[in-house]
Structure formats: structure tokens, C-alpha cells
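Schema walk-through. Below, the input block comes first and the output block second. Nothing else is stored per chain. Lengths vary across the set, and this one has 473 residues.
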Amino acid sequence: MTHRRPFSRRDFLKAAGFSAVSGSSLGTLGLLQRAHASVSHQKGFSDYKALVCIMLNGGADSYNMLVPTGSNANPALDYDTYAQTRQNMAVGYSEAGGGSWSPAPVLPLNNTVMGFNPDFNGLQGLYNSNRLAVVANVGTMVEPVTKASIEAGSVALPPQLFSHSDQFMQWERAYADSQQNRGWFGRVADLLAPSNTQQSPSMNISVVGSNLLQVGQTVQPYSISTSGPIGIETGWDPDGEKLSVVEAIMATSNNLFADEYMVVKERAQDNFDLIDAALNALGDDDALFGAGVAAGFPEENWLFDQLKIVARMIAIRNVLQVERQTFVVELGGWDTHDGQNENLPELLQMLDAAMAAFNAALGALNVQNNVTTFTQTEFSRTLNSNGNGTDHGWGGHQLVMGGAVQGGQIYGELPDLTLEGPQDINRGRIIPTLSVDQYAATLSRWFGVPTGELNTVFPNLGNFNQQTLGFMG
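--- output ---
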């Protein structure tokens, strides 16, 4: 996956040292340190909560996830407007008879004239049972924008709109006009980590390797694979020969760096042994989740493989003595410039099956109300077809799942889908009406960030009138 830049040693030194002394004010770091101090006495939460981020890498076409089901005077809710704009990319389009459209395949949703893509059978059931919500038209913003303010040049825009790498990192930061090497999971963890009973392993667990989202000032992500914890010898030193040589050299060195290396190495080994033993003690899928639930798990589904190890990590939360955790998983392939009608259905089916099965797994563990799963992607696609696919857009819809979610609703304003309409800045690139900051702040508030500290974690949040969006209980 090429949409993320790894967090380098230079980045760490900058984050750990330079930012703490630069400028004439404390800035975000100083504010987080103050907030950290203000909650540090709260040792231990009274409950367990986890946030699970599903990264849809490449820019997922959310306008083919949520689709109008019929005729409506409102262009945002009218299938004919949608079909005319999307042309051969529209759900319900048929080549037969020179090209025609029908909303019949769209799956109906309660209390709305919008429907889900026909490949969202599992998610339709979750939405209609109030366990899934849609957050409409979210995107990277510095401040609220309109088409008129963009054309007048009177509004600050995120840098490098429509760029994969830039927009990906802006979603991870939830701080669009900053270049800081910390993500919003990381900033939240810096604030809340003192309330976790144990500090090691990290409360931020990654199944995707290096990611900016989980990097904090003091908290760094702990990486696992779909098989469990990753040993030091894995890949780098499968026979242990290199490690034994390094340790022999370190053992004869009277050096602070060597001493610290040994401390870090021993801590890593302790974490590996603890997690590996706890996961092995859970038994197989039938033993952990029940044979009936496990029988419904999808096969050959890379996203669910990641979510299943997340469920297993959640199952050992008491062994790890943690009350707050974040997890990051990913599903790539969403950059559908070509072959969208062939490739998008497979991606949607995989996402649907993985999320539905994960919900069932959490139910079997009796933690559905304690875990909130949400999607994010760098941008949605152009409404306009390029002939065989779609191109990079801006605002799009996101999915939020869990027992604490106020589901069965669409939050935010559904955009006008008229090509060259009031929310289209070019070829159906839709101007967002909700910011990543608001989306992330809503999740963070449920997770345990005090309301008074949200502006510390999300420095641009004060630019928006509504700080939280109401989709979390």
C-alpha cells in the first residue's frame, strides 16, 4: 500500500523534541500536556471501549454505496438526477436497449428514500436494526466552505486536494492545514493513556503496520499480523543468528544506547510472550465465538482476517489490563479509474461481509456496545464517469457500526447530485458539508475525551458550529 509515508526516525525526533520547544507558545503539544495532566489522576476507566478504523485505501466511491431509490423533488434524493449524473457508473444501469436505468436493485432503508447498494445485504440489516449509521458528505476541511467562497478565493482549503497521499494523511491527522507527524488516534491516546491500567503494550494496535493515524507524542502503535503478535525474529532473523550477534555485542558495551536497546528488546519479547500465550488460550473460532457464529465467517476475505484478529485481541483485554484500545485495519483497491463496474461490486461485497461478520463476532464476545467500527477513505469519487470508471473526488459518505451507535439514520446533509450544481466544483467533485474533525471528535467524545478537551485534540474544530454530530450514544 503506497498511500502512507512511514513514520521515520527523523519524524520521531522532530515530534519528540523540536515541536516541544518551537514557537512562542506551547501549541498543540503543550495543550495536550496540560490536558494529559488534568486527566492523569483518573487511573482506570470503569468500562472498556474500542475504536476500530477501517481504511478504504484509494478513494471509495460512496455515491454508489448510498443511492436514491425513486423520484423526489429534491435533487439529492432523486434517482433520475443520480442516474443522469452518473451515467454508466450508476447502480441500476443496463447496457440493454442502448442504456437504461432502474432503481429496483437498490436495497431500501428505514425512514429514508435512500437505499444501499445491492451488495450491502448485511449492512442493510444492521442499518435497519439501528446498529449502523451513515454520516453524509464528510471531507477534509480547514473551515466551512461553499462553492461561492471557493470561487471567490475567500476560504482556506486543505492543501493538495484530490492527492491520494496528502488527503490520506489529512484524514489520519484530522488537522487539515498541519504537517505534524501525529494522528488523531495518537493525540487521543496521549490524552487518555494514563487512564489505562497498563501502558504496555500500546493501547493503539495496528494490523496494517506503520500508520500516521495512531502515532502520538508519547504513544506509538503496536503492530500485529492477522496471525497475532510479530516476533523480533519474524522476517528479519528467522533463525535467530543476527539477533544473537547483536545481543552479544550489546552485552559487552557499556553504553546508554545499548542499555536502552536491551530494555526495549526485553519489553518487546515480554509483550510478544504475553499476547501470544493469551491468544493461544482462546482456542479456535468455534471455541471462542461459537460454532454457529463461526460458520458464518466469510472465507478468502482479507478485511475480515484483520477484523477477526482484532476481535481476538479484544477478547484478551482483561489479560492485557486495558480499558481503551484503538485498532486500524485496511482494504485497498478503491482507486477505480478503470473497470469500476467490474471491481467495485467485489469490494463492496467484501466490505459488507467483513463488517457483518465482525458485528456477529463482537456479539458472541458480548462487547457489541463497547466497540465502534467506522470507515474512512481519502475522498469519494467524481459523480461524472470517465467512460470506464471515476476519478478523485472530495466529500463522501462514511459508515459507523456498533451497539452505541444511534443507528438507522443518516447524519448530515445529503448533497445535491446535479452535475455542475451548487455543491459540484468540477465533474461532480462534491464539496463536503461535514469535516473530518467533526466526525473524529464525535467518535472521540464517546471514547472518553472530555468535551472541554476536544478542541485541544482537534485544533480546527472550533471553526465549525457543530462540534459533535450526534451519531454516538
